[in-house]
Amino acid sequence: MLVPAAVVFDLDGTLIDSRGDIVAAVNHALSATGRRPLPAQLIVRFIGDGARALCARTAGLPEASDEVEPLLSEFIAYYRTHPVEFTRWMPGAQEALEQIADWDDLTVALCTNKPRQVTESVLSALGVRSRFRAIIAEGDVSERKPSPMPLQWIARVLGMETTRLVMVGDGPQDIESARRAGARSVGLLNGYAPRERLAEAKPDVLIPTLFELRDVLRRWRDVTVRLSSVAR
Ligand SMILES: O=C(O)COP(=O)(O)O
User: Fold this and answer.
1) Sorted alphabetically, which PANTHER family does this protein's record hold (predicted)?
2) For this structure, is 222 an active site residue?
């Protein structure tokens, strides 16, 4: 195994707890298109596969239906202008970003299924856009996580092999995308996905919160450095 060279974070449920703002934007879109708002717990179950899938699921429509369009535009328009009213950092997220920035040999990137325009508004409002050397969001490439395509794109932009990436996420989509891309994965247990679904996806490591990420990365760096000096 090669020494990790980049940590790629998922956004929703990993770096930020965005549930309140997503629920508000969905319920705005449902009302604006003449539908009834839904309870927050139900909406949260539909998060993970991007905004189009989210809007379709909340309205009981197939994702490919034209009827999803007006819902999606209402969702994006509202969310872009209300990006962080209820959003909070996930426990340990800011600390993890700061620690990794201190390690010269590790780069930080972001791989999210959130639409590009909303991702930009959220990152700018949180003042952290410049922390990421590469950002990929929904709509940037033709397939979203769990496809390996977004991670392959990140690796290309960073000029490294996908085997040098560590994907950190709370959803089975993150873990599957990493496996299919040949990257390592860290599953975060305190995010939105039920624990069993995350465990079934078989990440290389499962951690309770981002506070434990530093030790995992340190272990992987130390082991790979030791192994490569033995091989020499
Ligand atoms: O918006 C979504 O559906 C999920 O976004 P994420 O990939 O950052 O978890």
Assistant:
1) PHOSPHOGLYCOLATE PHOSPHATASE
2) no
